[in-house]
């Protein structure tokens, strides 16, 4: 009886694991750009190259690599371009920080204007 | 016959060119061209362009392949409606449509009364300078009426992805929006020249800016709706450069309409309003033409001829240089200082103006940054949807808060705690609903919860504000347009967030006879068959959707093979329900055994479109009611 429960539990865990891996894979697919399509992710694409990349990512997940490791591997091989969301690095400082700068400048400007009139 | 048409149509273009030149000269107070009057010239401009546009339609309808444009963009076997919409499914034809709307606005404005003669003359003159520029561009660089020497038996055809009833009306609607801002721009320039940027000026601008904004909103929504069911990716907004190019003028225009309102009510923010008017129109130009230039790759790229791109760039540059130097020269004279309280409706509008500018910056950065790094540093980047959603979401929270609170504040300093006490039931209700919803649906992301909470506040607040009784219990006239649009925006935001969180999808390789599962639905793959239509062949799959063994609906996703020109498109099959859409799309089979099916559950899509529709109606209501109010005075 206990054995049956054990097997059952194991199966359940395995299946859960598979589901988790699958959803992890899909999340990653959505982060990786299809190299031959126009602005699509490999998740959305059926191109041969996209399928190859999907297979590669699935393999790496089952080998136990983290998302970060997989992304690093892809960037090394294909460049920053392959990631749908640009990483925060020297090339993208302006891209990520300018919006917040603009917002802060505006807040100060409006506040000072109000103060001077009040 | 074709030769006559060639001469007549080109003559018409030259006629419009001459009339526009004469009209433009009115910008300086001269004596040479006082006759013929503004109205006569405006009519000549309209009639000449209208006739040439009708001629072009005629050429497409009769499939006169002696004309290059018809040869390259039409086909005799195409259904009538697409022969018709094929007129603007190409660079030259869409330019002519653009100009037609430009002269139409010019004409309608020339008709309007109760405007000081000088302001009207200059506005029409500035508008005519633009007409001149664009007609010259059309005539010399993108002439739609070019004959070819060959006797082609049939045309090449319209890009099948553009053969869609929605896309037949998407460009004209979008153009009315873009071009509507040209008139607002001309009015801004005229105001700068006459130094009459005041409450009167704002009343004149208002109906134009609101209707242009409503049309732009509708145009964007149509494009988005089309992308949703035609591209087959299950999304409605992809942050694609082309979509962004239309969103940027919309954001600027949204800020602009609120400034025009403030200007009319309080006579404040003159310079900022002018800057926004110039910015909105410049972004509209960028929206129309950057998209065409071929810098951004998409279905919208019709022709990439460097001469054309250069002309347009030069034109945009001249307009910007001219208007900003005029602004620098005259801005001191239009500004009147007046004070507003720190906590007042005015501040709320100013804050949201700035938040809009921040969002505009984000969209601009996201669109241009990859181009810049590519050109300057030779490094490629991808800026995908996540960049926009992570940066914009926190701003949206603030934005919704100020949208909710500002209309409740007075124009003068108001005590914030009094307002909050006054609105306590509203806040408690929204808070309760948000809590219940987030617990029930296991939603624990703070950003998402906050957006839903503030959207709810905004929706309830706008809806209750539009039903207002005075002391005698009589329904008083409220700001219906504003409340509709604001509630619509709240609904849209709520739908966007819930859609993003609760969308589900499955991808299957399916054979006939398979049963596929998506949530509680079972899809049985019935059959696949080939269908022949007049302008394409298609591969149609039949899926029966069952829930608890009962048949609910049949889905028929398709793959179409067009022959003129050869293209393959994928048609999604969508079931629209009030709370969620079910969306099936199949891909070109890799082998003959199975097809790849993608199934989506897209919650709140209907509500999302409903919110958008409310925004559009709100804009139209504001545009029309204001005219009435102004006339009453």
Mind explaining what this structure looks like?
The complex is a heterodimer of chains A (118) and B (633). Chain A has helices spanning 2-29, 48-62, 67-78, 93-117. By secondary structure, chain A is an all-alpha fold. With 633 residues, chain B is an alpha+beta fold. Chain B contains 18 helices and ten strands. In chain B, strands 2, 3, 4, 5, 6 and 7 form a six-stranded antiparallel beta sheet that branches. In chain B, strands 1-10-9-8 form a four-stranded antiparallel beta sheet. In chain B, strand 2 (515-518) and strand 3 (521-532) form a beta hairpin. In chain B, helix 1 (2-24) packs antiparallel against helix 6 (117-141), helix 8 (199-230) runs antiparallel to helix 9 (241-266) and helix 10 (270-293) packs antiparallel against helix 11 (306-334). The longest helix of chain B is centred in the middle third of the chain and has 33 residues, at 345-377. The chains are: A mainly alpha (118), B alpha+beta (633). The interface between A and B is large, with 33 and 40 residues.
